[in-house]
Design a protein that fits this description.
The protein has helices at residues 24-38, 45-52, 56-62, 66-78, 90-107, 122-137, 142-168, 172-183, 190-194, 204-219. By secondary structure, the protein is an all-alpha fold. The two termini are 40 Å apart.
């Protein structure tokens, strides 16, 4: 149902309340700070109200639910990615935007975990518009255009989720447990245990960049 998606509700924004400095922008900024320090699980409207030194009732004037707040916060994170200059060539513009998108998500480790939510906020759509425009400028159309857009989005968002997960395991004891688990089942996972699944030796930024370059080379091969 469209009422479950913040961006699709047919509701007019509420007017600002008198005699209060509280605004939706302040709420979202404070929510991101709370999410950065405590994560999604510990975010509550009560904790956020305490951070802002207001009542929970004051928050609900601006934001109906925690789910809406998460949608707003995620879209704000995507808005941290600058939209490249329109004059850039398609490949250069796409690479700059997509690399920036992943970097912004990883700068807020909670955000990749929300990527299953509808990505229809104004900041997301503005950047998706740029991606679509650059692919069209490169000469893609119809099904070829749809495949390219979906492939690039899936690669960036999937990489952000995977990299955020592995970064949470970035401590020697956790990595040792992962290695022991795989090596202890070598008969079940012969390729993983012998060809470098854990501690492969390349930074995830480098792997992402090389993967993105290969995708763009293939998708824009004749452009």
């Amino acid at each position: 149902m469209t009422d479950d998606v913040l961006w699709l509700r047919d509701t007019a924004p509420r007017p600002p309340r008198r005699n209060t400095p509280l605004t939706l922008a302040r709420i979202v900024t404070a929510a991101i700070a709370e999410l950065d320090s405590a994560g999604v699980e510990r975010l509550t409207m009560r904790r956020l109200a305490e951070r802002l030194e207001v009542t929970s009732t004051a928050l609900y004037w601006h934001v109906a639910t925690k789910e809406d707040l998460l949608d707003l916060a995620l879209d704000h994170v995507v808005g941290e990615v600058p939209v490249p200059a329109p004059g850039l060539a398609p490949r250069a513009g796409l690479r700059e935007l997509l690399a920036g998108w992943r970097a912004a998500l990883l700068a807020h480790p909670w955000s990749p975990g929300l990527l299953g939510r509808p990505l229809l906020g104004p900041n997301v759509l503005l950047r998706t518009e740029y991606i679509q425009a650059k692919l069209v400028q490169a000469g893609l159309a119809g099904k070829e255009l749809a495949v390219a857009r979906r492939t690039l989005a899936a690669f960036v968002l999937g990489a952000a989720m995977a990299d955020a997960t592995w970064r949470r395991l970035d401590d020697p004891a956790a990595i040792a447990k992962v290695r022991a688990h795989v090596l202890g089942s070598a008969e079940r996972y012969p390729a993983l245990s012998t060809s470098g699944f854990v501690d492969a030796g390349w930074p995830d930024d480098e792997l992402f960049g090389d993967g993105l370059d290969r995708l763009l080379d293939r998708l824009l091969a004749t452009r």
